[in-house]
Amino acid sequence: MSPSRRRDLRRYRANLRDEIDSAHLYRAMAAHEASSELAQVYVKLAEVEERHGRFWQSLIEKSGGKVGAWRPSWRARTMAWLARRFGPEAVLPTVASLEQMNRHVYDTQPETGGTAMRSQERSHARLLRAIESVEPKGAGGMSGGALARLEGRHRAIGGNALRAAVLGANDGLLSTLSLVMGVAGAALSSKAILITGLAGMLAGAFSMALGEWVSVQSSRELYERQIGVEADELATVPDEEQEELALIYQAKGVPLEEARGVAAHLIKDPASALDALAREEIGVDPKELGGSPWTAAATSFVLFALGALVPVLPFTFLVGTTAIIVSLGASAIGLFVIGAAITLYTGRSLWFSGGRQLLLGLGAAAVTYGLGHLLGVSLGG
């Protein structure tokens, strides 16, 4: 046997091992899943993995290799035991992560060309990720609230927007306060402190805006590519995409026949099918693609600048120690307010979060003031 044939045979065996392990684990998860709809999804995933396994088994045999009884590895058996002992949700994050890592494993293997195996592996990764995002911890099946979260995940931007606003203002206030106190400690003039503070505010705001623009634009480009892949698969393997949609709806708690009916209805209209696949698999509104990068950049710039103005503004009309004290006082109020605002999405005590933010912020300012003082004395000497 040639070296290349031996390498192929080793690859076939590794693929078969992965498929056997996955099928075994999905069967175990299905057997102990309280939700009958979700259990059926796991069974379907196991059946697909078993078909993939038979594909690799046939190639091994055609290459002159032998395949014994299908026996899962110790790792798969251990995870199956955990699923039986603690429930499928105990191993779901690990399974979802493994599927995510292996979603492109067949893309470069020539034997899978012209088959549905490549798209099915990607589909499994997306499906497991969707299930993981709504599976309630310590409970069998998906609750109505969990299903509602899955249904509206692409619209749930309120909490994220609030968090971004609070953290953007916090970054501006804290970084600029530290900068201002640092140069104040070096005993620079009030005018120099003001110029330094304004320069730091603008530099930080532009940096935040650019970073946000790149982040959102990159996400949009990724979503566009993913939707393009979905469109190609919808055109080439519509039956597979219909089955995938049905599985997703089953995972959300829709009865089997109803899920198949919804998927069959959607697949008749390519535009509607693509919209549904983008929302259900990728988790994004194809019309918005995660939002405008320019809006995100402008918002980030403004929020950072507003926070940064708090410690800088007193130096526009006050000088000396008075300006420093007023700047610290205004910043202390701002830090406490930001800490209190954080409780809107953490649920912690207002006084705890506000006080913690105040202490950490003033601590950072004290450190930079001390360092600025030491540097000022050293350089001045």
Structure commentary:
It is a single chain. With 381 residues, this protein is mainly α. The protein has helices at residues 3-31, 36-62, 74-86, 92-101, 117-134, 144-151, 158-185, 190-236, 238-251, 256-267, 270-282, 293-312, 320-346, 350-380. Helix 7 packs antiparallel against helix 8 (190-236). The termini are far apart. Residues 136-160 have low confidence and may be disordered.
Explain the layout of strands and helices.
Layout: H1 3-31, H2 36-62, H3 74-86, H4 92-101, H5 117-134, H6 144-151, H7 158-185, H8 190-236, H9 238-251, H10 256-267, H11 270-282, H12 293-312, H13 320-346, H14 350-380
Helix pairs in contact: 1-2, 1-3, 2-9, 4-5, 5-9, 7-8, 7-12, 7-13, 7-14, 8-9, 8-11, 8-12, 9-10, 12-13, 13-14
How would you summarize this macromolecular structure in one to three sentences?
This protein has helices at 3-31, 36-62, 74-86, 92-101, 117-134, 144-151, 158-185, 190-236, 238-251, 256-267, 270-282, 293-312, 320-346, 350-380. It is mainly α and 381 residues long.
Biggest sheet overview: none
What share of residues is helical?
over 70%
Structural shape: elongated
By DSSP (H or I, 4+ residues per run), the number of helices equals 14
Q: What's the N-to-C terminus distance?
A: 80 Å
* Total number of beta strands: 0
* Overall pLDDT confidence: 81
Contiguous low-pLDDT stretches (5 residues minimum) are 136-160
Strand content: under 5%
- By secondary-structure content and strand pairing, the structural class works out as mainly alpha
Spell out the helices and strands N to C.
HHHHHHHHHHHHHH
Write down the Rg: 28 Å
